[in-house]
Design goal:
The N and C termini lie far apart (43 Å). A hairpin with a 4-residue loop joins strand 16 and strand 17. This protein is 3% helix and 54% strand. The protein is mainly beta and 333 residues long. Strands 1-28-27-26 form a 4-stranded antiparallel beta sheet, with no helix packed on it. A 4-stranded antiparallel beta sheet has the order 2-3-4-5, with no helix packed on it. The longest helix is centred in the N-terminal third of the chain and has 11 residues. It has a domain of 123 residues: Methylamine Dehydrogenase, Chain H (7 Propeller).
C-alpha cells in the first residue's frame, strides 16, 4: 500500500456510510429519509426554523445571508427569500394573523412580516442581540431572548412590547411549561437554568449546572416534568426534574448539539449536531433513556425542526464545497 492509498481507502469507508444527500444507509431507523430540497445560492450559517402547517411552508433564518428562506415542503422547492435582515436568528409563525416574526442579532429588531406577501408590517425594537423566540398560542404572547440578559414579552395580537424580564446572562433556548405557568431558560454565560414565573413575570429561581456547560438547546416533557438540556462541553444530554432541578440522568452524546426536540407521542428525543449526526433516544418503561439510532446528516447540519403534524423531522445543511445548501426531510417511523 503506497502513501496515497490509505487516505483514499479512509475516504471510501467514510462516504460509504451515507449518500451525498445526507441519507444514512442504516436500515430500520427511527427516521426514514424522504427528500433533499436544494437551497440554491444560500450561503453561510442556517439557524432556527418555523412552520406554516396549513401551507406546509418552512421558514429558515440564514444568518450570514441576512435572509429568511421559505421552503415549500409539499412541492419540494425553495419558494421565496425575505431579504434585508441583519443577522436573523429566531423565527415564529403566527397563524391567527398569518404573520412571521423574525429576530435579528445585529440590531435587536423583531420584524413582523405578512406571510402571504412577505412585506414588512412593523418592527419591535429591543436593545440588542434578539435571538431565540417562542410563541404561546394559548396566552397569545411572544417571548424573545435578547441582549446581555433578558426575555421580552410581546402581545401577539397588537405586536406591542408588554414587559421585559431581566436575567443573569444572554438567554439561549427556553421552553414554556403551560401546566405550571413557568418559563425555563438556558443561560450558558452563567451555567444556569433560570425559572421565570409567568404570573409574576420575573425570575424566581436558578439551577446551577455542575457536570457540563455551554447549555444551548432545551426541550421539555410536560407530562413527566422533565427538562432535556443539551451541553457542548463536555458533550452531554442532561435530564432534570422540571419541578426542582434535580438531575435524573446524564448521557454522553455527539459533539456540537444545537437542537433538541421531545416527541410526546413516541416518548423519543431527537438531537441534531454540528458534527454531522442526529441521535434518537427513547424513554423506557422504567423511565430511563436509551439511544436507539444515530443517523449521519453531514458536517455542520446542526439545525433541525420536529414537525409532529406531518410526522416529519427536517435538518438544514449549509452550503459546502461543490454543493449547495439543502434541507433534509425525514419521515418519523
Amino acid at each position: 500500500m503506497n502513501k496515497f492509498t490509505l487516505p483514499i481507502v479512509m475516504l471510501i469507508i467514510f462516504f460509504s456510510g451515507f449518500h451525498l444527500n445526507g441519507q444514512s444507509r442504516t436500515k430500520n431507523n427511527s427516521l426514514q429519509f424522504l427528500d433533499s430540497i436544494p437551497l440554491p445560492n444560500i450561503t453561510g450559517r442556517l439557524d432556527h426554523m418555523a412552520l406554516d402547517e396549513k401551507r406546509q411552508l418552512v421558514f429558515i433564518t440564514a444568518v450570514n445571508y441576512n435572509s429568511v428562506v421559505v421552503v415549500d415542503l409539499k412541492n419540494k422547492t425553495m419558494y421565496h427569500t425575505i431579504t434585508g435582515l441583519r443577522k436573523p436568528h429566531g423565527v415564529v409563525y403566527i397563524p391567527q394573523s398569518n404573520s412571521i416574526v423574525v429576530t435579528s442579532g445585529a440590531n435587536g429588531a423583531c420584524d413582523v412580516f405578512d406571510a402571504l406577501t412577505f412585506q414588512k408590517k412593523l418592527t419591535i425594537q429591543l436593545s440588542s442581540d434578539a435571538d431565540n423566540i417562542r410563541y404561546d398560542s394559548t396566552a397569545q404572547k411572544i417571548y424573545v431572548g435578547y441582549g446581555s440578559g433578558g426575555i421580552a414579552i410581546i402581545d401577539a395580537r397588537s405586536f406591542k412590547l408588554m414587559q421585559e424580564i431581566k436575567l443573569t446572562g444572554h438567554p439561549e433556548s427556553f421552553q414554556i411549561d403551560r401546566s405550571t405557568n413557568r418559563l425555563y431558560v438556558n443561560v450558558p454565560d452563567t451555567r444556569k437554568i433560570e425559572i421565570i414565573d409567568l404570573e409574576k413575570n420575573r425570575a424566581t429561581a436558578q439551577w446551577d449546572l455542575t457536570e457540563a456547560q455551554s447549555n444551548f438547546p432545551m426541550s421539555l416533557d410536560e407530562t413527566y416534568h422533565r427538562l432535556f438540556i443539551g451541553c457542548r462541553y463536555p458533550p452531554k444530554l442532561l435530564i432534570l426534574d422540571a419541578e426542582n432541578g434535580k438531575q435524573i440522568a446524564s448521557i454522553d452524546t455527539e459533539k456540537d448539539v444545537d437542537d433538541i426536540y421531545f416527541d410526546k407521542a413516541r416518548k423519543q428525543i431527537y438531537l441534531s449536531y454540528g458534527s454531522g449526526f442526529v441521535e434518537v433516544f427513547k424513554m423506557n418503561t422504567s423511565g430511563s433513556y436509551k439511544r436507539t439510532d444515530k443517523i449521519i446528516t453531514g458536517l455542520m447540519a446542526r439545525t433541525s425542526l420536529f414537525i409532529p403534524e406531518l410526522n416529519q423531522f427536517i435538518v438544514a445543511s449549509p452550503m459546502g464545497t461543490n454543493r449547495p445548501a439543502f434541507l433534509l426531510v425525514y419521515h418519523i417511523n
